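Tutorial, part two.
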Amino acid sequence: MKRFWCLFLIAILLLACGTEPDAPIVEIDPATDTAAPARTAIPETPEPTPEPTETPTPTPEPTPSPTPTPEPTLSPEDRLYAYIDGMTVGEKIGQLCMFGFSGTKEISAEFKKILQTYHIGNVILYGQNMSRTNSDGGFGQCRRLCESVRNANLSEIPLLISTDVEGGNVTRFHWSKSLLSAQSLGKKDDTDRAFDQFRYIAEGLTGAGINVDLAPCLDIAKDPGATFLGKRIISSDADVAARIGVACIEGLHDGGCLSIVKHFPGHGATAADSHESTPVVQKSLDSLRLYELLPFAAAINAADGVMAAHISYPKIDDEHIASQSEVFLTEILREELGFQGFIMSDDFRMAGLRKQTSLSDGAVQFILAGGDLILCGANHTYQKQILDGLYAAVENGTIDERRLNESVYRILSAKMRVTGWDPFEYED
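Running the prediction step on this input gives:
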């Protein structure tokens, strides 16, 4: 029996060795000598292969936008010149003219056509345009007339509208307060009185629609009574004329008006009237520097404009009268005295000019000499001759556009000061 069991176990072992490695293992229950049910081996569950982690894409740093190069900031002067560059030649020529017309109620049809066709930028009103006998002294009538003129202006550039109120006999309106003559102001030698009178004048003018006063006279004479100006001369003393003249200018500014001083380089050394003829003064430049030019030099930084006289000074310029002379307008007034405002002619209707040159040639020479603003009252034939001369000179190159621009710049600068007009209002 023992031998049987030994053989049996050997057989079992041999049988086990012949099975496949993964076959179920049969266990023998020792109590019954029978094989226990086969137990299937459970393979180990392999660790799951981890999903490959996606390498995050780095967020790129934003590329900074290049800082734009700022546009260069233009100076006010450069901005105004840029505006002028956009004007037509006709518009520029129109700014160089201050013309008048007849009538008291509204702008005349003929002058309205000239104003609009030639882009006239400035207007002069004389006594013939005022109704000083009206109950209000003519101020209301003048205001309506100025409104009519401004309504006819097709340009965005406002008009300068001028007159000449000096006091004394040159008043144009009936004023509720008495206006002392220049001579009386000089005798009082009271700058406060002069300032107050011309502030009062400016307030009356601006209320009537006028923004330029062709005053004060800075002419001086040893004997004012011997000249055609008479009481329009402040004093024979250059210092008195200078300080009272400057006070008059400052009063006009305080009241809202531009001031045009006159009659450069001085009308006091002659009895002749340049309305009727061409006065001739035999004085040297050194002599003028010591006397006649002193009030103008004192007022040079205060005045908005200087009016040039139709007078001959052959010892200083033997070719041209003062209003046509580069020596007087450029070399003396601009370069020696340092005047930066606009230079205005006396009226082109005057014989002092017309006996020397044609109006068309005179207009061209005035600009070439350094002038800016041509004055011509109510003579439309003369006005057209002036315009014809300027247009032809620009077309043939006698006057280049750069020279036009210089004068237009001075005039528009004055308009900006007195009207509040801003050519850059709608710029970004």
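The CA atoms of residues 87 and 120 lie 13 Å apart. In part three we will examine how such features are distributed along the chain.
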